Amino acid sequence: xxxxxxxxxxxxxxxxxxxxxxxxxxxxxxxxxxxxxxxxxxxxxxxxxxxxxxxxxxxxxxxxxxxxxxxxxxxxxxxxxxxxxxxxxxxxxxxxxxxxxxxxxxxxxxxxxxxxxxxxxxxxxxxxxxxxxxxxxxxxxxxxxxxxxxxxxxxxxxxxxxxxxxxxxxxxxxxxxxxxxxxxxxxxxxxxxxxxxxxxxxxxxxxxxxxxxxxxxxxxxxxxxxxxxxxxxxxxxxxxxxxxxxxxxxxxxxxxxxxxxxxxxxxxxxxxxxxxxxxxxxxxxxxxxxxxxxxxxxxxxxxxxxxxxxxxxxxxxxxxxxxxxxxxxxxxxxxxxxxxxxxxxxxxxxxxxxxxxxxxxxxxxxxxxxxxxxxxxxxxxxxxx
Amino acid sequence: xxxxxxxxxxxxxxxxxxxxxxxxxxxxxxxxxxxxxxxxxxxxxxxxxxxxxxxxxxxxxxxxxxxxxxxxxxxxxxxxxxxxxxxxxxxxxxxxxxxxxxxxxxxxxxxxxxxxxxxxxxxxxxxxx
Lengths: 385, 129
Ligand SMILES: [Zn+2]
Prior knowledge:
heterodimer, A: about 375 residues, nine-stranded mixed β-sheet, globular, B: CATH 2.40.50.840, binds zinc ion
């Protein structure tokens, strides 16, 4: 396998972009990534997108997005794994370059979620759960994560305040990210007094509905050394794993096993351990998710995620800063784009371009992106060389 | 809901029919074609136990549109007595008094009704014992 570098990243302001179409928000980010990389062409492209059919009534993104980026007839594919679509697209692009099949590859992610009313968006998102044996009974995504939270609190003594600390930290980080949808800071009191959605999760425990896109450019290391004028970032580990689609079918509903297995694969490939990671972007679709994920990634012992968050382990100045971008909570969560935006943040941090939220001496970064209630996960490890 | 989609699930929703693997004894609900544990493709039909224990729960306060008239309502994951776990609404209960570990019993109930000329959708719900 060839070594793979990330030589360009691109992302625009996220939010409720009612004045922009799906094709335009994608193309803007793709052009930013192409300009950042300084390349004059791409050989193939992959785009993560969960549900353009339900959100905007448009499928066949492989053609549409290649067409509007002006790159036809290059090969193009849309990749779907619910909210992990972006992360999975990166893995496919990585394998395309590593295998020698393509040299310059664009990997993007996009979701345009606000063209439908909220009920429409809720329905589209719910299709990531088991339609016949979960959704049929009236469950929602906040509901599924709320049941994980309830079980985690019961089993490990995780507190309501500890959940809130995830939101407080991520909004603090997001306040320094000009691209974030909700850069406002929040307090523990704000979170625990916000509107109840599914007990014990409140509105400020949940990531928002967002329009947005992000893109990166990959190429083999030998080409990157010749054309890249910025610090070289290499993908050293890539892991993907699955679990049952229904939360209730899992042995332990407080453990995100797909993330645990994907992380083990990525650590092994990169020859790294959890303690070697300088910073991580993880899938905080709900506050409890970040707590379960930092446990699954091995940053903390199982059951200690809440306590570690409260103790500042994952804060910007902590031992392993998590979600320096603001995470899904503050930056926004256009589902298919999230996994790629995570990579954009890690690359910026490793290059030393993260301005006010820059982590000192960041050399090794990790991204973790998951679908549904944890039915699929993708983990990548990146290093600056 | 298209009628065939609803009709296909009737053995599970009305009668709680599961499948027991002839290779290792694992019970699946709904039935599947191959066992995840031992890879056997031979199953026998079993009816699930109708009682179990509440493993976790939540109260849905922002429901999907077809459940608006029932909100707020409780949903939980219940481990039935032969080891199968299901997700279902918990009804006929005080929402403030639910507890992990509580005993539950399955009952046949209406799940929701679709608008004009739509079908009434039935299935299982849990009630505290
Ligand atoms: Zn078996």
